[in-house]
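Throughout our pipeline, every protein is held as a single compact record rather than as scattered files. This encoding replaces a full spatial description with a residue-level series of whole-number codes. The remainder of this section carries one protein's record, kept here as part of the documentation.
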Amino acid sequence: MKIEVLGTGCPKCHKTKENIEAALSESGREAEVVEVKDLKAIAAHGVMLTPAVVIDGEVKMAGKVPSVEQIKALLG
């Protein structure tokens, strides 16, 4: 599984990545977590608001920092 955090590196983006890592740890799952800061790459996903969470190429959430519980739900 590949999880991308789309954003420019703002505090909300960093918090999103921290929450993703916590959700993975708590659920015992593993994934590659990547920060995408390039504006063209972000726009290529059709994302206009950051931070955004992309799981295996699919935008799951954009424009807010998801909680650890919300991320667990997204992971299934």
